[in-house]
Design a protein that fits this description.
Structural class: mainly alpha
Radius of gyration: 20 Å
Number of helices: 6
Shape: elongated
Number of strands: 0
Length: about 180
């Protein structure tokens, strides 16, 4: 029974690690949840220093994504309007309030939403510029936001994969022993 639970938790954690690479998906939450369920079920057996360090990194990884968003937007000149627009676009896109598409649903919305939101926010912010320059400035800010988000998601995904690997390496001997 313990082996079945273990494999199920590792599967959920792997899904979380993969999901962490998609904007707006609850990847770290699934990995942390899997570790917490395991620790409660086993009475904290197999939890060691390397796993605790990675868990701390997972908690920090949520800040990494936000910082990458900010860094990418700032690097390509986005104003606060563009950054706020990207966050609003992420929420609206994820909730599916973008025009209905035959495929993709919330994942596609979470990818397109920040781009569109940053564009609209930046476009409104630089209203004094001529139209062509407004569009160019808004597009540049949108690209920066998306590049930052992609970098943040890749870093978060790598941390989540590392967490799963260290979890398995730390707990597998216990699972084999008990089974």
């Amino acid at each position: 029974m313990i082996m079945l639970l273990y494999l199920l938790l590792v599967g959920v954690m792997l899904a979380g690690a993969i999901g962490e690479m998609i904007p707006g998906m609850p990847g770290v939450t699934l990995v942390l949840g899997g570790v917490l369920v395991w620790t409660v079920v086993t009475g904290f057996a197999g939890i060691n220093l390397p796993l605790l360090v990675v868990l701390a990194l997972l908690v920090v990884s949520s800040a990494i994504e936000a910082l990458a968003f900010y860094w990418g937007a700032k690097k390509l000149g986005a104003s606060r309007w563009g950054q706020v627009g990207a966050v609003i676009g992420l929420i609206v896109g994820f909730l599916g309030l973008l025009p209905a598409l035959p495929v993709g649903g919330p994942i596609l919305g979470a990818l397109l939403g920040p781009f569109v939101g940053a564009f609209v926010g930046e476009f409104l912010h630089v209203h004094e510029l001529p139209l062509k320059q407004r569009c160019r400035t808004a597009l540049k800010a949108s690209l920066g936001t998306v590049v930052g988000a992609i970098i943040g998601n890749l870093v978060d995904g790598a941390i989540a994969v590392l967490a799963v690997i260290i979890f398995v390496a730390s707990t597998w001997p216990l699972v084999v022993l008990v089974s």
